[in-house]
Amino acid sequence: MFDTREKLKIAVQKSGRLSEKSLGLLKECGINLPGGNGKLRTEAENFPVEVLFLRDDDIPQYVEQGVADVGILGENEVLEKKKNVAAVRKLGFAGCRMSLAIPKDEEYTGISFFEGKRIATSYPAILDDFFRRHGVGVQIEEIGGSVEIAPSIGLADAVFDIVSTGSTLLTNGLKAVETVLKSEAVLIANRKLTKEKLDILDKLLFRIKAVKNASENKYITLNAPLSAVPAITALLPGMKSPTIVPLAEEGWCGIHSVVKEDKFWDIIDRIQELGAEGILVIPIEKMIV
Ligand code: ATP
Ligand code: ZN
């Protein structure tokens, strides 16, 4: 199927919040990667890719330089590093928010609150962009980690960091007051891939799309009185149109279709009102549209 001289080099996070989901996605795309803990690189057995395990902070630079051809990492890290790479596709996992937080007893009066304040963060570039856009002058203190303790030790007046539940902020006497960025995992690519590598990337993206479609949709089968078929098929358009099969019982048929996960409960309620029975909802393994 492929000229196997060239392999697409994919950088993923070595160990951290993105690692498992990144490898899980490649696996769902049918790419078998021989395991082995502590390995820094591995080649797929059945697809022309090689996976490099790196710190997420280093991925944008390596992709820009072509050490890796593509990379999977948080959008926040891509924006922070400002490297010349192509953002190819959002991947729908590792969602998080980056927020500004202040001591919880202070009254927040809007973005101008930060004028002249010192803000501790590991993401100085994103923060600088944000305040420039809003025309607010701040002093940014770049620190590597444990940003939340900065106000209590007198290093800063506020912090800017990834917030998941807010509980770390709370235990440090802080509250989130402004969301600066919403991030999720993305696939980035080097801007000068060879034709051969672009072909491999296209195949990979095709598979990623099939995996994503499958996770966002369910296969549904149900029985319905023939009189209800037009109304039910209008609610269940499916991929082209629903499949309708006769049932042994006179006046009834089976309907097979695909529904979007997020519309699912609403549709179930409505088709039940139309007389549908024996509804089965089945996960889809892959969906090629
Ligand atoms: P590395 O050792 O590779 O530099 P790291 O400590 O920078 O790892 P992780 O904590 O593993 O990174 O987070 C990686 C990415 O996961 C973040 O940049 C962000 O995009 C995403 N993420 C999602 N939810 C969270 C969260 N609750 N806290 C931190 N990061 C999160
Ligand atoms: Zn990192």
SSE layout and pairings?
Blueprint lengths: L7 E6 L5 H10 L12 E3 L5 E6 L4 H7 L4 E5 H7 L4 E5 L5 E8 L14 E4 L2 H11 L4 E4 L15 E6 L3 H5 L2 E10 L1 E5 L5 H22 E9 L3 H7 L7 E4 L5 E9 L3 H10 L3 E7 L6
The structure holds adenosine-5'-triphosphate (ATP) and zinc ion.
Distinctive features:
5-stranded mixed beta sheet; single chain; flat; D-Maltodextrin-Binding Protein, domain 2; 289 residues; binds zinc ion; 27% helix; alpha/beta; binds adenosine-5'-triphosphate; 6-stranded mixed beta sheet; Alpha-Beta Plaits; 3 domains
Walk me through what this model shows.
The protein has 289 residues and is α/β, with parallel strands linked by helices. The protein folds into 3 domains: 8-94 and 184-214, D-Maltodextrin-Binding Protein, domain 2 (3-Layer(aba) Sandwich); 96-182, 3-Layer(aba) Sandwich (D-Maltodextrin-Binding Protein, domain 2); 217-283, Alpha-Beta Plaits (2-Layer Sandwich). The chain contains 8 helices and 15 strands. It has helices spanning 19-28, 59-65, 75-81, 124-134, 167-171, 195-216, 229-235, 264-273, and strands at 8-13, 41-43, 49-54, 70-74, 86-90, 96-103, 118-121, 139-142, 158-163, 174-183, 185-189, 217-225, 243-246, 252-260, 277-283. The protein has a 6-stranded mixed beta sheet with strand order 2-3-1-4-11-5, sandwiched between helices. Strands 8-7-9-6-10 form a 5-stranded mixed beta sheet. It is flat and about 80 Å long. Bound molecules: adenosine-5'-triphosphate and zinc ion. Residues 55-57 line the site of zinc ion.
